[in-house]
Amino acid sequence: MRLQLMTWPAVETYLRRGTAIILPIGSTEQHGPNGLIGTDAITSEFIANAVAERTGAIVAPTIAVGMAQHHMAFPGSMTLRPSTMIAVLRDTVESLARHGFTHFFFVNGHGGNIATITAAFSEIYAERSMAPSGNVPAVRCKLVNWWANAGVSAISRELFGSREGSHATPSEVALTFFMHPETESHPEMEPQVAPSGGFTDAADYRRNFPDGRIGSNPNLATPAHGKRIFEAAVEAVARDYAAWSAA
Ligand code: NI
Fold first, then answer.
1. What's the whole-number average pLDDT of the chain?
2. Of 36, 78, 90, 101, which sits 20 to 30 A from 67 (CA to CA)?
3. Ligand 1 centroid, distance to 136 Cα (angstroms)
4. Domain limits for position 15
């Protein structure tokens, strides 16, 4: 069930039998010559919606802008500063905790969000640790990256091998081609497999990775590959959610 398509009495009824909620979180940033700006938000939302359907959980609105400062030299990219993103996550969790939600399961689509999400969890727990006991409702937060499981890894290894890379990957681009087939494109990319390495700020990133990709060849992406990755991701994330929310 999508929170945005529910009424408040329906949410109140849900809270009598369950207090967990799924929160998709992504990013709005360049994804190379053929990857969509919304890739990380689109993928996490699709997967989270499917997991919610399968498990009967509520899914919150997608947090579609993340921590992407290093992509800002490419048009269309947007970012929250880490400090802003921590504030957004705190207010999101505290709003829902006010109503009785206790378990917050974040389905993440962007590796660059991980450090900031983890810091936000610490802020949320610190609030409780520093308040007189019982004054703030206890919560549990969990972060799951849709690509970080054995099922998805095996498929991406089989289909793409070392050409998966780490940004604008054929796996994530294939997922978006499956979800939005009208956006599929295969422009020429030079070199076919992008360079790998590190970066600091946005200018440094663009110098090191001129077309936005890191280590990847997203021209290998097809909607059919995306379908396989999607199904594996939903399977793994739903299993994680069921085990975590039951514990
Ligand atoms: Ni991405």
1. 97
2. 101
3. 35
4. 3-246
* Residue partners of 17: CB distance under 8 A and separation at least 6: none
CA gyration radius for the chain? 19
Would the pLDDT of 27 be above 90? yes
Give the distance (Å) from ligand 1 centre to CA of residue 17.
35
pLDDT band of 247, cuts 50, 70, 90: confident
On whether the pTM is more than 0.85, the answer is: yes
Q: What is the CATH number of the domain that holds 213?
A: 3.40.50.10310
For residue 40, report the distance from its CA to the centre of ligand 1, in Å: 5
Instruction: List, in sequence order, every residue forming a beta bridge with 25; answer none if it has no partner.
Output: 63, 108
CA–centroid distance, residue 46 to ligand 1 (Å):
14
User: Domain tally for the chain?
Assistant: 1
Burial class of residue 95, CB neighbours in 10 A (0-12, 13-18, 19+): exposed
Distance from Cα 37 to the centre of ligand 1, integer Å: 9
Q: Separation of 101 CA from ligand 1 center, angstroms?
A: 29
pLDDT band at 190 (very low <50, low <70, confident <90, very high): very high
